[in-house]
């Protein structure tokens, strides 16, 4: 509502024009308990110090999402500095978003001119004439103008003064780029509160004692409210009665289905989150609104532009244009090159709107899950194609949304960006969409990438969700396959949970026998052999591996037969049969090379070194290790971190045996980096050896 203020009788003279007897002061009440925003307040303060002899009006455009506190910031700052504007402050809510019609420039100009002392019968008709008179009246005056809730540059431009003594602050949910380009406005994007600012706001609203009494619940409330000031104020109002608890509200809000309804003030449309978000949503074009709705379906942390194209089933050029429009509307935030997200409350709102069309939701979700399955397997293949060779015919085809990897660096960049999304996507595929094959493929392609980064929980989670999918589908062959992956995972965890690995491998072996699945049986026998080796039962391990040997032929393009040979080498080394160990390591080398197994580049040397050291052939070990390090094939990016650390650990042992203490120390320090990064127990042994070398 435009606030005209109290205008007394004015005198009209040929030379003096209109002179109001009361200076307009139209600012509304400032929001109590205003918190934070120190950087933004400093930005606005700096506007006051800009030179006045430039002949231009100083304009700041504060833009941000609905409920983020744009009006609160503008009014709080304006209250602080209105004494710097002796000729008045003008304020209007332009109603650019929300129910009802937005105010027209003509309506605002009539009210502003009246507030400035212009008699109604003198105000001309037409926006251009009104705007010209408005600028004339403000000439030579210092007036602060706050134009709140604008929806477009065209709504604002006629309301800009022409006098350099005036200052204008505009707030909007749009970026108002036209003001920046056309009149050199200073843009001030307003983001969510920081976590610290959000907790401080709760302290101001509820009192520091209540927040201190349950700081964990306060922090969780901040998270559930997405650090959105309006949501936090509504939440605080719900627990303003000391008999209510923050923890109780947190429990209610934890159910995302009701969160938007709980964060509402029923008798005030402007304090209802759905209504606030509606104001932005209803200004979108149909294709923009569709992408926003689909965006809310994505279960991960953020969304890349290629994944967005798959989700919406459009080409990259179209999806980029649509995303730019959503960013401009502050419904989506760009968080990196071609990566986007929206805060949890907006995502819940978007998902609610998408729920109304179940078939569209299912088709979009399936496209996105297929996109992740395709790239998880393709990226895994860049590291080691042999590991996914048995599943190549299951890779879903893609259109223009597909990313072409030109090498390991491209694949690694994709993993870095997408790994945070993969656990929720696998869960989504396993539960909401009942797509067990796709859940399994994503888990197959991704669990080792989590392992390489030491993300043990996530590595287990993708396989656990794939197991859920297999069991829901009653697919025993798939269940056996996933159980083998889990058993493998448990065997490489820092605490090496051999009992769990054995239990799962035995279950996988039973299922494999029942379904006559040669592949699952070979993997299960191999894992059971590893469990026996860990317990120094080497003959039992050999027996299991010899049973797995004929089953492994051809698996993973021959790679898995090499894995069996390598484990036979380890088992024979444990038994003290070093000649057999060397023979099996040689077989392993031939099989891995034939399969193009880049990931095994250091596995074979480790097995050979263990056997050679058993024979006391340390000079041969040193020559072998130096040859590996000098060779063209050595590339740590392909090797597993445990194998790399183990290689340098063993190399150091032989160097010490021949008296090269400095060389041993260098190798052990390199091994220690790998062991410590993955919290492996051998780190303690290496630290102890290094301590012995210290004088």
What's the structural blueprint in terms of helices and strands?
Blueprint: E1 11-13, E2 17-19, H1 38-48, E3 58-64, H2 70-81, E4 89-93, H3 105-115, H4 127-138, E5 144-150, H5 153-156, E6 167-172, H6 177-183, E7 186-190, H7 195-206, H8 208-213, H9 215-224, H10 229-238, H11 246-253, H12 256-262, H13 273-281, H14 286-295, E8 303-304, H15 305-312, H16 316-328, E9 333-336, E10 339-341, H17 344-354, H18 358-384, H19 408-430, H20 436-452, H21 456-472, H22 476-492, H23 498-515, H24 518-534, H25 538-551, H26 559-575, H27 578-595, H28 603-614, H29 618-630, H30 641-657, H31 661-677, H32 682-693
Parallel strand pairs: 3-6, 3-7, 4-5, 5-6
Antiparallel strand pairs: 1-2, 8-10, 9-10
Helix pairs in contact: 3-4, 7-9, 7-10, 9-11, 12-17, 14-16, 14-17, 15-16, 15-18, 18-19, 18-20, 19-20, 19-21, 20-21, 20-22, 21-22, 22-23, 22-24, 23-24, 24-25, 24-26, 25-26, 26-27, 26-28, 27-28, 28-29, 28-30, 29-30, 30-31, 31-32
What can you tell me about this protein's structure?
- By secondary structure, this protein is of the alpha/beta class.
- The chain has 32 helices and ten strands.
- The strands form three sheets. A five-stranded parallel β-sheet has the order 4-5-6-3-7, with helices on both faces. Strands 8-10-9 form a three-stranded antiparallel β-sheet. Strands 1-2 form a two-stranded antiparallel sheet.
- β1 (11-13) and β2 (17-19) form a beta hairpin.
- α26 packs parallel to α28 (603-614).
- The termini are far apart.
- Mean pLDDT is 89; it is low at 1-16.
């Amino acid at each position: 509502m435009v606030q005209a203020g109290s205008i007394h009788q004015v005198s009209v003279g040929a030379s003096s024009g209109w002179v109001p007897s009361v200076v307009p002061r139209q600012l509304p009440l400032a929001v109590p308990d205003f918190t934070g925003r120190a950087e933004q307040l400093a930005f606005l303060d700096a506007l006051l110090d800009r030179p006045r002899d430039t002949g231009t009006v100083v304009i700041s455009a504060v833009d941000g999402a609905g409920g983020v506190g744009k009006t609160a910031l503008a009014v709080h700052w304006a209250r602080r500095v209105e004494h710097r504007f002796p000729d008045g402050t003008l304020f209007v809510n332009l109603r650019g978003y929300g129910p009802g019609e937005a105010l027209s420039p003509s309506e605002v100009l009539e009210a502003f001119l009246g507030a400035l002392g212009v008699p109604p019968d003198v105000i001309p008709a037409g926006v251009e004439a009104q705007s010209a008179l408005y600028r004339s009246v403000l000439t030579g005056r210092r007036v602060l103008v706050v134009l709140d809730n604008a929806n477009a540059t065209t709504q604002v431009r006629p309301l800009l003064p022409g006098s350099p003594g005036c200052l204008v602050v505009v707030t909007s949910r749009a970026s108002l780029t036209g003001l920046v380009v056309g009149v050199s406005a200073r843009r001030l994007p307003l983001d969510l509160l920081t976590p610290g600012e959000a907790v401080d706001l709760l302290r101001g609203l509820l009192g520091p004692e209540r927040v201190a009494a349950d700081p964990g619940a306060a922090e969780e409330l901040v998270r559930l409210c997405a650090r959105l000031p309006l949501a936090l104020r509504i939440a605080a109002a719900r627990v303003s009665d000391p008999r209510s608890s923050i923890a109780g509200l947190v429990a209610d809000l934890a159910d995302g289905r009701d969160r938007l309804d709980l964060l509402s003030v029923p008798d005030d449309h402007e304090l209802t989150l759905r209504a606030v978000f509606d104001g932005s949503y209803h200004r979108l074009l149909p294709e923009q609104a569709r992408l926003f709705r689909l965006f809310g379906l994505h279960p991960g942390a953020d969304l890349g532009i290629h994944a967005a194209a798959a989700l919406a089933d459009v080409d990259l050029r179209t999806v980029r244009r649509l995303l730019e429009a959503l960013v401009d509307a502050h419904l989506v935030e760009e968080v990196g090159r071609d990566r986007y997200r929206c805060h949890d409350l907006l995502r819940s709102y978007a998902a609610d709107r998408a729920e109304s069309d179940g078939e569209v939701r299912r088709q979009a979700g399936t496209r996105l899950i297929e996109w992740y399955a395709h790239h998880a397997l393709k990226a895994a293949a860049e590291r080691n194609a042999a590991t996914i060779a048995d599943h190549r015919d299951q890779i879903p085809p893609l259109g223009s949304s597909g990313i072409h990897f030109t090498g390991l660096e491209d694949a690694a960049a994709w993993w870095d960006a997408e790994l945070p999304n993969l656990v929720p996507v696998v869960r989504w595929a396993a539960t909401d969409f009942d797509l067990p094959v796709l859940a399994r493929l994503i888990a197959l392609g991704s669990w080792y990438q989590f392992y390489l980064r030491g993300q043990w929980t996530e590595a287990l989670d993708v396989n656990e969700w794939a197991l859920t999918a297999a069991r829901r589908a009653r697919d025993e062959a798939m269940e056996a396959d996933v159980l083998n992956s889990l058993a493998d995972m448990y065997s490489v965890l820092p605490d090496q949970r051999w009992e769990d690995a054995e239990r799962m491998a035995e279950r996988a072996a039973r299922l494999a026998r029942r379904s006559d699945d040669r592949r699952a049986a070979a993997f299960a026998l191999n894992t059971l052999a590893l469990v026996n080796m860990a317990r120094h039962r080497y003959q039992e391990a050999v027996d299991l591996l010899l049973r797995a040997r004929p089953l492994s032929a051809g698996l993973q393009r021959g790679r898995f037969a090499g894995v069996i040979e390598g484990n036979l080498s380890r088992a024979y080394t444990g038994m003290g049969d070093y000649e057999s160990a060397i023979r099996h390591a040689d077989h392993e080398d031939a099989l891995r090379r034939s399969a193009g197994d880049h990931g095994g580049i250091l596995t074979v040397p480790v097995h050979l070194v263990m056997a050679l050291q058993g024979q006391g052939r340390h000079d041969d070990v040193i020559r072998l290790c130096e040859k590996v390090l000098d060779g063209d094939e050595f590339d740590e990016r392909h090797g597993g971190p445990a194998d790399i650390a183990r290689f340098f650990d063993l190399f150091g042992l032989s160097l010490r045996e021949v008296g090269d203490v400095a060389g041993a120390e260098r190798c052990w320090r390199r091994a220690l980096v790998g062991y410590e990064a993955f919290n492996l127990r051998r780190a303690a042994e290496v630290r102890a050896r290094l301590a012995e070398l210290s004088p």
